[in-house]
Design goal:
47% strand, Jelly Rolls, alpha+beta, 2 domains, five-stranded antiparallel β-sheet
């Protein structure tokens, strides 16, 4: 019986140590993180250096179905964000699904502007998003982008064929 009490006591001491480590870690982390989830229906067509026209539709109402009439890279869709200026952006989450892995999202970018027509790139993640099964990609983590003007999320699309589509789902803006 005494040995059993020792085992239980050691297990409780270990649990207390782990709990203390969790509390210490969360205290060391700056501010808690919040995710602002956005509907993909807010996207608008942006600059299209491929020379074609992007079409945005929503067949089921909960995604943005993007097609093009000309294959090529550098086709952008933009999302004007409305965020409070007391937050700092630390990460962007993009949920998406592709018809074909050869047509994909090639860049996730945040640009900030105040006086037109200039903008400064504040976040630039060039990881190719190529899931045909559907996925949510948590992008790179940054130290914190202060909201000091208008911020636009841009997705750079690369279409290998006009028969392909890129579906964008929820967008998460992680702030602290």
């Amino acid at each position: 019986m005494f040995a059993r009490r020792l085992v239980v006591g050691a297990a409780l001491a270990g649990l207390v140590a782990v709990s203390s480590a969790i509390v210490a870690t969360s205290v060391v982390d700056a501010a808690p993180k919040y995710i602002v989830w956005l509907s993909p229906r807010g996207f608008v067509t942006g600059q299209n250096l491929a020379g074609g026209n992007l079409t945005l539709t929503s067949p089921s109402g909960d995604e943005e179905h993007i097609t093009t009439d000309k294959a090529g890279d550098l086709q952008w869709v933009n999302y004007p964000l409305q965020l409070p200026n007391d937050r700092k952006i630390v990460q962007v989450i993009v949920c998406y699904k592709l018809d074909d892995a050869t047509s994909f999202i090639s860049q996730v970018r945040l640009g900030m502007s105040t006086i037109p027509p200039t903008a400064t790139v504040m976040y630039d993640d060039g990881t190719d998003l190529t899931s045909t099964a559907g996925a949510c990609r948590s992008g790179m983590v940054v130290s914190g982008i202060s909201v000091k003007g208008e911020i636009t999320l841009g997705l750079r699309l690369n279409f290998a064929s006009t028969n392909h589509a890129i579906d964008v789902g929820a967008i998460g803006i992680v702030t602290k």
